[in-house]
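User: My advisor, Dr. K., asked me to get a structural model of this assembly before our group meeting. I'm new to this, so sorry if the format is off. These are the inputs:
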Amino acid sequence: GAGVSQSPSNKVTEKGKDVELRCDPISGHTALYWYRQSLGQGLEFLIYFQGNSAPDKSGLPSDRFSAERTGGSVSTLTIQRTQQEDSAVYLCASSYPGLASYEQYFGPGTRLTVT
Amino acid sequence: GQNIDQPTEMTATEGAIVQINCTYQTSGFNGLFWYQQHAGEAPTFLSYNVLDGLEEKGRFSSFLSRSKGYSYLLLKELQMKDSASYLCAVRDSNSGYSTLTFGKGTMLLVSP
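Assistant: The format is fine. Below is the predicted structure of the whole assembly, which you can bring to the meeting.
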């Protein structure tokens, strides 16, 4: 079946502009996660959605970052007034709580470059 | 909070065996994962350990010792395609089944 998809694959934006990144999780996966990966760094957790519960926003680095998940499926990560330090690969993952391991399946990521 | 340590880089020869170690500190352990990530690609799931011992899956095995806060990933019969970054990640029971904390990854280079 189809895996996690993300769009766009690459995004170049000017400092100060807003950007929206999209994630389509695997059908039936109720849990959705956003991470970012900077060069030479590990994956940094940003936000987690589970069903209709309130999202866990504990990883968002500033109030310029926000995310929504509509209809329990597609998610959008928005970064307002982008800064150069926001340049990174933004990865989305989904998982199915019915699995004991709750393993996460990752999308290909969006490479964001802020100039 | 959590602290996860793994070597930055390792090199090995095709056909050999390599062990990638991971140590962690967490307030409430609830599972350890290994992921493989090829350059420019998404991480893919390799293994999951929640109880002490060895989990074997083909050429790859993963070991966990909860009392020592230690895990390793063992790769046998190395192939060139095994050149990738290997990510150790820990799930904390305080966060339920929500988030994983990842180490910075170990870049493995397999040479002929």
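One thing worth pointing out at the meeting: The two ends of chain A are 37 Å apart (CA to CA).

User: Perfect, thanks a lot.
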